[in-house]
Amino acid sequence: MKTISKSTAWTVVKGLRFLPFHAVTFLLLLPAALHAQTDSLQLLQLLPRNTTTYQVGLGSSHVLDTYLSQEKFSGTGLTLLATTEREKPGKRWTTFMEHQVNLASTHDRSDTQSQLQGDYTLLVGRLYQWQLPHRWTVQAGGALCGNIGFIYNTSNSNNPAQARLSASVMPTVTVSKRMQLFHRHLQVRYELNVPLVGIMFSPNYGQSYYEIFSRGNYDHNIVPTTFVSAPTFRQQLTVRYSISNHTAISLGYLGDYQQTDVNQLKTHIYSHRLMLGIVRQFSIINHRL
Question: SS3 for 44?
């Protein structure tokens, strides 16, 4: 190892005497600052990454509820969808949460009756990830899904509204492909959710809400559901195009098909939406006092 002679070191020290004090301080602290910056970058790479997506969609809705009417209703609906995904570098598990709000105004085929439909859905789940060749990614797992909503028939005087409340376990699969377009990242992603088992609230055939809530007459109103009695599924196809290192825009399709056949009552709510959104990716640093 090569050593520095005393005369050379003394020359360096004498040279520093003619530099301003702040310049000497900067030179002395520069190695420590560079080392701290390197440590900060390494720490940032190990922090959990959050990806948030906000989307708004517009499209058609088709509603049938035989408790309110034997007619099928169709119209236009609006969907708001907020998704948060959290993953740790080097780990294969991703935790996600989705909030979805649907609103629709529909009318029957003769345009003499109208119905308003709305619901809120919450999904919380985890996905396991496999990285495949050619930038393909597959994720599989499950989610807990809760849904609350209503259908209101503006023409009915007796039993004008139907309440909707359900919870289910939903297996979930996603497939995505990453590529380059105009020197920017492009991702095509498909997601499928299918409920496996759950429970739901439903009046029985011919039973009024007055009987349920005012008189307390229970008649099989909490119903277990399976894919046979509630053949529901939900799918999303999105294309994400990055406009900066941490921001992307998304364009896609959301199809939500909710169906039930319980207590001799049939319900379906089919919605098709063209979705437009923005995607942001960031890391959260916890500061402890």
Answer: helix
